[in-house]
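Notes from hallway chat w/ T.B., transcribed later so I don't forget. T.B. wanted the structure written out for a chain they're using in a teaching module, and asked if we could keep both sequence and structure tokens in one place. Agreed to drop them here.
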Amino acid sequence: MQRQVYTATVTRSVMLSEPTQTKHIEFAVQELKRFDFIPGQFVSMTAPRNGKTMTRAYSLASGPRGNNQFDLCLNRVSDGFFSNFLCDMKEGDTIAFNGPHGNFVLRSPLRDSLLIATGTGVAPMRGFVEWLFDSSNRDRHQGKQIHLVYGTRYPSDVYYEDFFRRIATENLNFHYVVTLSRGPDEWSGSRGYVQERVREIILARPEQERKNMDAYICGLNNMISANRKMLQQELGWEKRQIIYERYD
């Protein structure tokens, strides 16, 4: 069955980090008054290049808002085509896409959860958090403890920090932890890799509650593998408790 193709118009483009050339881009779908999707899903963008149609999947960096909008978070790639093409788009430019697609979504029933991300893997996590903690629908998070553990190298690589800190301030059951692997001397926050922080969070829970959680992991394969190994082999979690999406 042929997939429905839509047209997305750029409504806003913001540089999140100059050093990593990472952008937050907002789109509106021309053909729809309402673009419905599940937080964590992705869209497939298409664009012509040298007589061919190029396709690239991008996780949605927003939750469904009851309108025709969605956000992406992406960075320039050396010698890459598609991400650079999107980063060069200006307000009013259009691009074709299809979707939504994907099963990297929150489980039902919702349990206490760990959201684990590095780099632009934070995109679907932003969608999860935006949807769960929508101020117009307080029932979505059901009072569950939601931990976002976000790892990167430098302070300049931390994306959406103001958004996540605001949600943490307004909701006592949302916990936001940033850990840097190459933080400068003046960095006073957490250091090290995400799996170290994840281990601390789990071991701080009552023993009978340490396996009563789910983990959602998004980023590069090495990070995902390290967390899966720790959760399963060291902490005794089952495979079905660990939902993940690789970016490489």
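Follow-up for T.B.: The longest strand covers residues 6-17. Might be a good example for the class.
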